[in-house]
Input
Amino acid sequence: MFRLGGNAFDAAIAAVLASFVAESMLTSAGGGGFMLAHTQEKENILFDFFTQTPRYKSGGKVDFYPIEFNFGDTVQTFHIGLGSMAVPGNLRGVFEIHRRLGRLPLMEVAAPAIEYAKNGLEITEFQAYCLKLQEPIIANLEIYAPGGKLLQAGDVLVMADLAATLTEVAKNGVEEFYAGDVARQLVKDCQEKGGYLTLEDLMSYQVIVREPLAVNYRGSTLLTNPPPSSGGSLIAFGLELLSGVDFSLLEFGSVQHLQLLTEVMRLTNTARSDYDALVYDSDVAQQFLSAENIAPYAHALNTNVVNKWGSTTHISVLDDEGNAAAVTTSSGEGCGYMIPGTGIMMNNMLGEDDLNPQGFHQWQANRRISSMMSPTILLHNGEPEIVLGSGGSKRIRTAILQVISNLIDWQMSVVDAVASPRCHWDQVLNIEPGFSPDVDMRLITGDELVLWTQKSLFFGGVHTVRRTTKGVMEGSGDPRRHGVVLVE
Output
């Protein structure tokens, strides 16, 4: 897109569309997402095109059932079926972003995705791993398991129906998907087979433009996803706790460092228990991040420590005009249903426990779902310095928190900040290899412990770009996700 004269937003949109092919097991036109934009005019915009809860609950039998993903060192349960689908927003979001910020014709922006879908992409080791994780969902889909045999590394994935769908949409707009024959087929299948979606849900879906959540962290302005999504506020809360810590007294990877991160995650989870009930209040972020609310948690951190798949795709883009884009999209694990003739797998956002904290089928009707997705930009003196985000389900916020801390508190290079080991606490403490092996953390934290034998996409994929103080562009595609960096 840069070679064609496009800007960061053209590049981001092209990459999102291409990801519907290259990472179709993680994101799709049937999912939702967010883009955080910083323009050369210094405007900050959060485009919310995440999934929406349906307007009506079904009185009949709902197609909704559990499946397990085996990550090797841990197993996570998700729920799929037509009853797990929320109203999708990815295509509507792509069109709105292009209309407002894009420069190139949409057909040019969509051309790489259409080419990949039509002519095929060779499956990499990472994609093969993702397909294996998803085997309980996709084993009966011909494009992923031709003749009943799951595609392997080296095989070619062809999505001819998706190529035709993207071509139609790029030429004629998204109304076919939201109000035309595609929409009617989706609604018909929901009504007959146990889904919630109606034509009214699809036709009324709109992209919401929000003001990003902005907080200060050690002299930089952090911009991230605001409420009603939770991830950005929880990252900001964790950074507020870390801001009172003198990192010169710590050694990276030490037991003390790991204990600090664990306690920050634990305290953030504790604070979240009250936050979730208020997530749709207009001033919830101000309440949650107020000095008064944070003070007791900061005191607890100081007392207790200091003195003692994600199924998501992320793209980060910087250009030399001063534009920055951080865009995160997902279809969850996919619900197991592909709209006939389109190549589009629908999402299972109503089947992810972290997005449904009140319990499954307890969602409020016609509400934008609160997400952990947290596309993030850090500004220095008003200019974009760092752009990052992650996949990883409920690990998104802790992965981003750790990379930001690595970059700012530990002054690491982008490559080291992304590659360094991570931990994640959520009742159980998961630890990647690379931290201090000297002390059993259970003796310090009392937690059940999972010591991973290798780094894993379980801990997210924090794709990061940075412009240094000397104006040099650098980046890192997270090796846990086989991420890549492209420089033009």
Notes: The first strand starts at residue 32 and ends at 38. The mean pLDDT is 91. The chain has two domains: 8-32+52-209, 210-312+373-481.
